[in-house]
Amino acid sequence: MFFTIPTIMTWTRIAAIPLIIGVFYLPIDPATRNLIATILFVVFAATDWLDGFLARRLNQVSSFGAFLDPVADKILVCASVLVLVHLGRADVFVALIIIGREIAISALREWMAQIGASKSVAVHMVGKLKTVVQMVAIPFLLFDGMLFDVVDTRVWGVWLIWIAAVMTIWSMVYYLQKALPEIRARVK
Asked: What is the total count of domains within the chain?
C-alpha cells in the first residue's frame, strides 16, 4: 500500500524538510522565520501520530508504512537538529548524540531483522518518550523567543534538547542490552 492516506501523510514529513530549512533563507524578519518554521515543524510532526491513527482506523496498515514512518521521523528530527546547530541554538554534541543514535539503532534493528530477532529491539516506551521530548524541544528552539510573554523557549528548549540527548543515550543502551544476548549467540 504505497499510496494510502497514512503513507502520503508520512511522505509529507520528508517533504517538509526543505520547507523548514528554506524558511531560514527567506528575506523576512527573524521572528517571522522562527514562527513559520515552528508552525511547519509542529504541523508535520503531528502527522506522526495522525498517520498511525488513520492507518489503524482505516485498516491501511502496511509493511511499507511501518518502514517509512520511523524513517520520516528520523530524517525530520535529524534535519531540524542540524538546522538548530547551524543557527547556534543547539550544541553540536547534542546533534552527534541524536544522529549517531539514530544511525546505530537503525543498523541494529536491520541486523536483528536479518537474523530473525527483531522482537528483541522492538520499539519501547523509553524510545517513545525520547521522541516526545525531542518533538517538544525542537519547536521551542525553532521559535527562539518568548511564548505568551511568559515562557522563554530558548531556555526551555536547551534544557529539553539536553534531556532528549540523555534519553537518547539511555534508549540506545536499553536497545543494545536487549539485543546483546542475540548478538552473543550469533558472534560465537
From this structure: 1
Query: What is the domain extent for residue 20?
Result: 5-187
Provide the terminal-to-terminal Cα distance of the chain, rounded to the nearest Å.
40
The CA–CA distances, whole Å, from 171 to 73, 131, 141, 150 equal 16, 10, 23, 32
> What is the CATH classification number for the domain harbouring 125?
1.20.120.1760
Q: How confident is the model over 59-85, as pLDDT tens digits? A: 877 777 777 778 888 889 999 999 999
How far, in Å, CA of 121 to CA of 171, rounded? Answer: 11
